[in-house]
Specification:
The complex is a heterodimer.
Chain A lengths: L3 E4 L2 E4 L5 E7 L5 E8 L3 E10 L2 E4 L6 E3 L9 E3 L8 E8 L9 E2 L3 E5 L1
Chain B lengths: L2 E3 L4 E5 L4 E3 L2 E3 L5 E8 L6 E7 L6 E3 L2 E6 L4 E6 L8 E9 L4 E3 L3 E6 L1
Parallel strand pairs in B: 2-12
Antiparallel strand pairs in B: 1-4, 3-9, 5-6, 5-10, 7-8, 8-9, 10-11, 10-12
Amino acid sequence: NAGVTQTPKFQVLKTGQSMTLQCAQDMNHEYMSWYRQDPGMGLRLIHYSVGAGITDQGEVPNGYNVSRSTTEDFPLRLLSAAPSQTSVYFCASGNGGAVYNEQFFGPGTRLTVL
Amino acid sequence: AQKVTQAQTEISVVEKEDVTLDCVYETRDTTYYLFWYKQPPSGELVFLIRRNSFDEQNEISGRYSWNFQKSTSSFNFTITASQVVDSAVYFCALRTSYDKVIFGPGTSLSVIP
């Protein structure tokens, strides 16, 4: 199993550009989520999904869109990048519902917005 | 609202000392899960332990131990006889019945040889 994979690993954008961060998991997990990590702020939840076709907002959803068309994939879209979105982005997956266990994290994407 | 507080921003200890990392959580849910994760300098996030709200049994695993107290909404983590390899950022996290998993700001632990 590859676990949770994220692409790209590094990305530099100019203000106003759009892009999609990719996340995929091969563990058949229902639950997937996106976090951003900034110095001193820990990991802040952006969006999460409890299954295909179901998404919900986390703590800091503004400026980001998500969709979940398949169990495996959970892309994160930045429609118009801003310098405040410079961060490290982590995708995670886990079992949901009553058998909830820990989340498995991808290696992260380091995004810089100029 | 759900919230996780880790009041210790940075801790430095000398190798072989014991160290306790504090975690205080807030939730109105009666069913919830608590987690500890470790993030070494390499950047990956490593799961350490999970506890649900109905299981207040404390646990010891090697040099690690956890103290869960619902009465004080705390889920503290102790490393006994710390080692340089324990140097990392440690995160406490809370998952409630609404499926949101909220992380605390983290505690950066430096173990000095």
